[in-house]
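User: Batch of two.

Assistant: Item 1 of 2:
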Amino acid sequence: MWNNAVRPLLGLATVGVIGAIVAATVVLFEGGAIESVPVTVLSPRAGLVMNPDAKVKLHGAQVGKVSSIDNLPDGRAAIHLAINPSWLHLIPANTGVDIESTTVFGSKFVQLIPPPDPSPQSLKAGQILDSEHVTVEIDTVFEQLVSVLSQIEPAKLNETLGALAQAFSGRGDKLGHTLADLDTLLTKIDPSLTSLSHELSVAPQVLNAYADVAPDLVKTIQNATRLSDTVVDRQRDLDTALISAIALADIGNDVLAGNAQAFTAVLHLLVPTTNLTNKYNQAITCALGGLKPLATGPPLPVPGVLLLDSFLLGTERYRYPQNLPKVAATGGPQCMGLPDVGFGHRPPYLVTDIDANQAQYGNQGILLNSNRLKQWLFGPIDGPPRNTPQIGMPG
């Protein structure tokens, strides 16, 4: 009796356990027991085959799924994602989003695109991402194709195709060679696509610069037009000037040809002089720079040259053969600070070996304020000698 009452209960319990296992399996399969982080993607459109439970991928691996899709008042689509928390730290906060499909007719999924410069912060719960790229569906392509074809008149299309067929008839070999040459050209251009892309990216800046100077360029062209008009108006005068120049060239040719040997000799004679001036160009430039203030300064009140003169002692008499001319100065060209000599600056005295040494015989000349002169004027003075500033050697 008791066994008959327990059997229905055991059967009912078994059915309940099996149902619970099936329900748990379904929940686990759908990810209901897995904790997820909500993220929202705003897109211009979701696509025709974007449905809930669509995959969310990063580098080809599934990191979540689409939980729901809502339409916004501005016409955009809000795609709510459920991201697996274990993958959240691998997704940067500034990641990009594309809505793609495996095939033309396949269902869509959300593709997370790592940015070129990833943010150090990870994706957070409730963050909103923007998607600007959605794979075009085949029906959209057909719709655009139909809109284009509807604008074409069949008769004109038939005429165009007939003309193309007639143009290519018998020229397949040439067309094949042309396509092969085009392929070769594109193969050569392919390594330079990076440089070409850079040039195209900076082209707007260059064009803007040309646009800024366009008025000046137009003005320059206008001036060039006026110049060309002047040349046309003065064509006869230009012809006369050219004829005169040709005649002058002929005369100059005769003069130079007749005196070529003399000119050559003169140039050879000038070589030592020009070499010397080239060697002393520093000193010559210095001297000319020193003379410039005399030429550019204000005129003197009295015409002439202002000099500060005084009487000096005579030099030693000429002795033969000790005072024969001697050329032994060395040191090359020098410039003693000209043309700008600072205030209070005394250029150094250049001592050279030209046999002009006034002190070689020990002649002291006239001495003033010497000790003998003081005794003659004032008599003997007690105490040590008291020499005042003097001219000449001390007595």
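Item 2 of 2:
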Amino acid sequence: MRITHRLNRELEVWRPATEDDGAGGQTVTQLPAGTVPAKVDEASAAERVLAAQAGAELTHVAYLEPEADVLRGDELRGGGQAFRVDSVVEPSSPRYRKASLVQVQAEPGDDLS
């Protein structure tokens, strides 16, 4: 059974792209890579503790369709929020994908849609 009926929001996927700057370095720009339906929850205390023990930060988890094009390093944006994707996993039976997220605070002038 898929979880499509539980995915209650649409998020924009932004993917980092690197480009040579002409002076021997690179610039990284976030480019839109599509939208995905998702359900975003705050991480439970147990999930946060496990992440901290592994040296990672975790604020939210997102549930996505199994074929969702979301990768580590992407940014998910929508509803005035932005999240950095730290990892994406699938259970043994591919009913959904689960992404570990860290909420990104907006800078003045940022458009988080």
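The chain is about 10% helix and 50% strand.
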